[in-house]
Amino acid sequence: MFTMAERTEKANDKKGEKNMKTPEQETSKQKKLTQLNLKSVPLSVRNSVVSDKLPNKKPRTSSGEMSPNGASEVIDTGELKIIQESLREIKDTMVKKSDIKDIVSAILSELKGEIKEEIISEIKGEIKGEIKQEFETKLEEKAKHFELQSKEIADGLNLDLETLREKFHAQSSEFRRMSQQLKQCLFTAESALKLSNNNQQYSQKNNIKFTNWGEGKTENLREDLIKILRTTVGLDLDPTDILEIHRIPGGAQKGPRPVIAKFRNSETKIKIIRKRQNDQLKKHFHMHDHLTTMNGRLIYDLNKDERIDQAWYFNGKVFALDKKGKRHRFEIFDNFAEKLRARSDT
Asked: What is the pTM of this model?
């Protein structure tokens, strides 16, 4: 049998052994706390030891229990205090139920946060990857489609451009050919008009045009002309010298209608027209060369030109005198400036 003092000492030794931790247990506990990140848990709770075993109950010793010697042992007060303090420390170091709940709640909350963040991060990564892949796929498809369309459009434009180029070359050739033909036509037309004008003027070479000749209801122009020339300027004409004489047909106009007379030859015409400045003759009529419309327009334009002093007709041709006193011969379609410059250069 053990004495009370031995029992107390043995209980304290067991308590010390129970509270003592091996280095492996301490490292495992610290690692678990580090993994769970329980630094926010109170220090007293972290250092506590949770045990599912109930403390061993020590057998009570009745105060009447006798020693082998038959003598009664008295419990020391100091030992009782030590036992109470040991029990108090055991009680203080034991984990309470509320602390366990707090620990579990903190662990669960932290685990939930970590799991939530990991899930969110993984979902974000997967979504970003899928979106990026889908975007790149669609972008590549669009790029290929655009490239194909651009190529088709470019091919079409090149074909159209080549067709337009061929048409342009054909049109250019046709335009040059037509320009040459037009120039030839213009040259031919001008030549024909010049020839026609010259032929007409040649046919009117022996004609005299009379203006301001009083017109009567009954008149004999041939006899009247012979009589007027004899009485005013002393010219005796044979009726056969006048091949034709008539008034120009036309409607109502101011003054009497002009008279055209065709003489037998140029000598007769010149002999008569030289008297046109006679004042007595001017009382009856005025005499002019019978010009074609084109030659008449040509003389009119020459007289209006500032570089020309005067213009006239003689023997089927049109002449002009410039301000420098030089005489020039003109035909229809002539460029006055070029004609005058070419003559001045010579």
From this structure: 0.49
